[in-house]
Design goal:
Elements (H helix, E strand, L loop, with lengths): L11 E6 L7 H14 L3 E5 L12 E3 L27 H14 L4 E6 L1 H14 L3 E5 L10 E5 L2 E5 L5 H21 L3 E6 L10 H4 L4 E3 L10 H14 L5 E6 L4 E3 L4 E3 L2 E6 L5 E3 L2 H13 L3 E5 L11 H20 L4 E5 L13 E5 L13 E2 L4 E2 L1 H8 L22
Parallel strand pairs: 1-2, 1-4, 4-5, 8-10, 8-15, 9-10
Antiparallel strand pairs: 2-3, 6-7, 11-12, 13-14, 16-17, 18-19
Helix pairs in contact: 1-8
The chain binds 6-O-phosphono-beta-D-fructofuranose.
Length: 411
């Protein structure tokens, strides 16, 4: 491939955020901005992802501006605009190229998942735009090639900024949910984002969920009865009589009426990248569980709670070390790549020497490795819990641990 030629010859770096937000986006922007400034770069922010490079451009100055990297979400805003969307591609790419010249942007740093970074990689390959990718997604489904050493077993795991904060929030939320489930002796079916990957759903187990249903392992005609049996067994095994079942929004579930295994969609729309919106599977699962077991079951969707709120400590340090590696790429003019963590590690071990880089094209849809899930138990196993324990502490278990003596009537 031909070496990309620099569009401009100055030192202006522009950052954009695309796709669904996470709690670690502002932290990533702050980390990149402050490091690039020290290296003498002028730093711009492009508003609303790729949208900010269309038409007249929507660009703000970040150099020497105060920035809050703890507050979640993205101050640069986000969108799911795709520069290469169908017949709009030619016009959009022309507008982007024109604006990069007009604003004299020399290097683009794209913080996003497969869609955002995939589009950036295309711009690099087709148009010679110098780009550096920066990972983010609560879904944790990018191919970061991060090795998890579980007692000597090396697992090809994934770790994306945004996931640790989301996972911690989900564990805490699930743990709180236990008090209401227990008070009503109910089954609560908790729906969790994550698109086609079950990584995030596993975090609910850290908070006390005992069954997790994920996209990688569908509930089919063949195993549905076994699932109901498992639900009955766990619910009745102790006197506590409650159960939290975590379900991924992208779970594939056997529908008796259609005879098909399918996902539940929240709407028929698709975004610019062709992704549909999932939502509603918890309602289906809860009503079928109640019908099959006779135990009261309610659906609850954690929704945007998973990705909202402040950046947690692990993510804050995680993005700082990735930003160090991104600066390494910048100084070497080594474009089309993205920094990643090499080895799953504790907070203390998050250091630049534990990072590497990957090509930023085709990094998406990395499913959960099979070794993390026990199909017959319908839940994540101790290997996954070990993976998660590096970034999420087990929340305090809230359990009604009373053993009140029974009072007998006098007659
Ligand atoms: O990809 C991140 C994610 O949060 C998914 O888990 C979820 O399916 C999707 O984004 C929701 O997107 P939106 O912000 O369009 O509702």
């Amino acid at each position: 491939m031909a070496q990309p030629k620099r569009i401009c010859e100055g030192k202006t770096l522009a950052i954009l955020t695309g796709g669904g937000d996470t709690a670690a986006l502002n932290a990533s922007i702050e980390a990149i901005k402050s490091r690039a400034s020290i290296l003498g770069y002028k730093v711009y922010g492009i508003l609303k992802g790729w949208k900010g490079l269309l038409d007249d451009g929507d660009i703000v100055e970040l150099t020497n501006q105060p920035y809050d990297g703890v507050y979640g979400g993205t101050a640069l805003r986000s969108s799911r605009t795709n520069p290469f969307s169908g017949d709009k591609a030619k016009e959009r790419v022309a507008q982007i190229m024109r604006n990069l010249k007009r604003y004299r942007i020399d290097v683009l740093v794209t913080i996003g998942g497969d869609d955002t970074n995939g589009a950036a990689k295309k711009l690099y390959e087709q148009e010679g735009v110098p780009v550096i990718g920066f990972p983010k997604t609560i879904d944790n489904d990018l191919n970061t090639r991060t090795i998890h050493n579980y007692n000597g077993q090396l697992i090809n795991a994934v770790l994306c900024p945004g996931f640790p904060s989301a996972a911690k929030g989900i564990a805490e939320f699930t743990s709180r949910l236990a008090t209401t489930a227990e008070s009503h002796s109910r089954i609560i079916v908790l729906e969790i984002m994550g698109r086609d990957a079950g990584w995030l759903c596993g975090a609910a187990m850290m908070g006390g969920a005992e069954i997790s249903l994920i996209p990688e392992f569908p509930v089919t005609k063949e195993n549905k009865q076994a699932l109901f049996e498992k639900v009955r067994e766990i619910y009745s095994k102790t006197k506590k009589h409650f159960l939290i079942v975590a379900v991924s929004e992208g779970l594939r579930w056997y529908d008796e009426k259609t005879g098909k295994v399918d996902v539940v969609y929240a709407s028929s729309e698709v975004d610019d990248f062709g992704h549909p919106r999932f939502g509603g599977v918890s309602g289906v699962v809860a009503s079928e569980i109640e019908k099959a077991t006779g135990i009261q079951a309610r659906a609850q969707n954690i929704g945007y709670y998973a990705r909202s709120g402040d950046c947690r400590n692990y993510d804050k340090r995680f993005v700082s070390v990735l930003a160090d590696r991104a600066m390494d790429l910048l100084l070497r003019e080594d474009y089309g790549k993205m920094p990643v963590l090499s080895k799953i590690c504790s907070y203390q071990e998050l250091e630049e020497f534990n990072t590497s880089t990957v090509d930023m094209g085709n990094i998406g849809n990395q499913p959960l490795p099979e070794v993390y899930y026990d199909q017959s138990e319908f839940h994540f196993n101790e290997r996954y819990m070990d993976f998660l324990s590096y970034m999420v502490d087990k929340p305090k278990a809230i359990r009604f641990d009373y053993n009140f003596p029974k009072v007998k009537p006098f007659e």
